Amino acid sequence: MKRLFKGPWLWIVLAVVAVLLSLQFLVSGDGADEIDTSRLEKYIADGQVKDITFIDGDQRIEATLDDDVKREGGRDVVAYYVQGQQDTILAAVDQQVQDGTIEKSNSENPQPGLLSSLLVSLLPFIIILALFIFLMNQVQGGGGRGVMQFGKSKAKLITKDMPKTTFADVAGCDEAIEELGEIKEFLAEPAKFQAVGAKIPKGVLLYGPPGTGKTLLARAVAGEAGVPFYSISGSDFVEMFVGVGASRVRDLFEQAKENAPAIVFIDEIDAVGRHRGAGMGGGHDEREQTLNQLLVEMDGFDVRGGVILIAATNRPDVLDPALLRPGRFDRQIQVDAPDLTGRHKILQVHSRGKPLAEGIDLMSVARRTPGFSGADLANVLNEAALLTARSNDKLITNHALDEAIDRVIAGPQRRTRLMNEHEKLVTAYHEGGHALVAAALPGTDPVHKVTILPRGRALGYTMVLPDEDKYSQTRSEMLDKLAYMLGGRAAEELIFHDPTTGAGNDIEKATSLARAMVTQYGMTERLGAIKLGDSGGEPFLGRDMGHQRNYSEDVAAIVDEETKKFLAAAHQEAFDILEENRDVLDALVLALLERETLDKAEIAAVFEPLRRRPVRPAWTGSPTRNPSAIPPVEIPAAVRQRAAEGAVPLDKGEGGAIITPPGPGGDVHGGAPGAPGTPPRAARPGCAVISPVSHPDPAERPDYDHDRAEAAIRELLFAIGEDPDREGLQQTPARVARAYAELTAGLRQQPEDVLTTTFDIGHDEMVLVRDIELWSMCEHHLVPFTGVAHVGYIPSASGKITGLSKLARLVDVYAKRPQVQERLTTQVADALMRILEPRGCIVVIEAEHLCMTMRGVRKAGARTLTSAVRGQMHDPTTRSEAMALIHSPRR
Questions:
Q1: Are 151 and 244 in contact (CB under 8 A)?
Q2: What percentage of the chain exceeds 70 in pLDDT?
């Protein structure tokens, strides 16, 4: 009801009532009582009327009754007649006049007065005009603004007396505070800057994701500057009338210049600053006129006048280039999501006035909220306070903070959603699949929480968060992420043989990531490092309408194929991981069904027996791009820390990480021999060596410990449930220990011990020995792989060669070690290059792995081919000749 009386309808009703009353006043009789026409006719017939007057224009009869007439009211009455009644009434009046009863009878046709005529004629127009002005004032927002003030600025002036927000209330964006603090200093001491010829930026643009504190920074500048601060939104410039926006821009800057030094803040400037000429109609746009005036005003700034423009936007990419050029927005400050330290400071700011229980560690909360904006963190603490009040507690506890983080990430818990036992089981396996695949892969973030309690639109969720802030991702990490995303779907297929719709969002995100790897990040060998598609679009068009495709249909088909390959490989990998760890998956599901929510420590306990995947091989994108054999430089801070701790310096020379060349498809598999105790070295993006292992010098290795190996075999037999003392197994530990001594003999040999004899006979053509039988042991499962090796080289200019049997023995040196085939291939090639110094060499190994035959995918007969090419063998002609010799028919 109060809103009704405050709105315009009250004034409209009052105006209508006033009009009706005015008209009633103008046309009414002079205080006479209105009676029915039939009643007046009776008074006439009874001879009770003294005098009577007919007013033709209004069809009105005014009469005065005799004094002896008894009635309520006065003796003056008035009645109205309709067309046709007047003849009957006139006849009765004439008869009474003849009888002498009516003393006076006349007829009038009065002319209205000038004032009343004007009032009656103009009153409707006056009312319409008044209503128009009133409604326009309402559109203008009230506040006494008239209809002729459309062009006046609607900026709010913030004075010194208003509540202040200062830089002390802002945290997590120290660089932005420093830049804006310089503006405050310029306004306070302009002579300091002018003395050295410095010019303060004419404009400062704050840009970044929503909720990062851009407007809060502007409010802090207003509180710190101590000068007039004009605040306006970009949408306030444009109204329904053309030209209003440009007029308001002029008025805003006129006010600022009159009160200089001053600051003008335009929030959401993209509302008026979008790229010109992007409208769908192609005609003149009111926004363009407003933008043009804004450009003119910014160009006309007088630096010494002390007028500075600060603007904020979430979309700097759609702003007109003329607005962003130097001389207008000289300084552009990115306000991004805070890092760990920034989140901690923001939490400290927003925790003021909130009673925290003992033991609350805000730094721990900051670690659990990577990617959160300042607004998200404020919401976390506010939600925690609301939950505390709801439970009638006095202090905010860790439990309230945990629940608040979950609410911000996934929404409130839906306690009213009841799931039957089968749906709970499916959800548990789905979320368990996500968690297990994420934990088994080395490139995914740690699993912090798994729950099957419905939140928001999800029936459950798995929280995977990094332990520290990350600003880029490697290809291997993205491949691991794809597998993790499809882990839930794979679990449904593995366990229930019939997937559900619950993986819809997972598939959508995985498809988006896989397509981005193909079209944006250049993560495929087939297409290479190329950006496909133009997602810039036009600023005024929708997201989908704005996308452009700058590639052919054939390339589009390749994009689809490569995207599908990524997804299919990730899907299969997730399925294989779950199949290998079915026992761990079942244990996780049982724990979820019992407790519904598992935290990081509980998940780690379940995952203790988890069989984890090794890190992926490195990838360069092309077999012709050979990574350098020189490891990256050490981080100076790490060197200083090691020196301070008195540790052994990391090897910087020949013993550094050996980065292997790419194999088929650009994959690079290799080891990183280094000094004892040397941790794996970080790799350079694009040619990183993944899965480095430490191979000390054979001379430094301890002798083979036969007794220890035999004891270990006995323990293994006990572990699998066997009795090593039963008949048939009593000699097994000793036999296996002797076998391992032979299988690992290469660990205590050096290739230089084999390639001891060389000849200089002037031979400068290719030397190739093929079909060298080899057997080795897979280091991942300690089961054999067997096959053949083909080794060839082009002697140096001096014609230096070695005995043919030496090449076979060189293969044995590296094969008799725990190996992966890719590294074995590389090590043989590198040893040849290092010792014989040929112009080039090629090593091709073809082997069958028992780990693929008896376990995992169980694909008997599948053979793996790897190659390592060095020096002149990279020449296509020479390489083709070598491959032709290797694959030529055997006799």
A1: yes
A2: 79
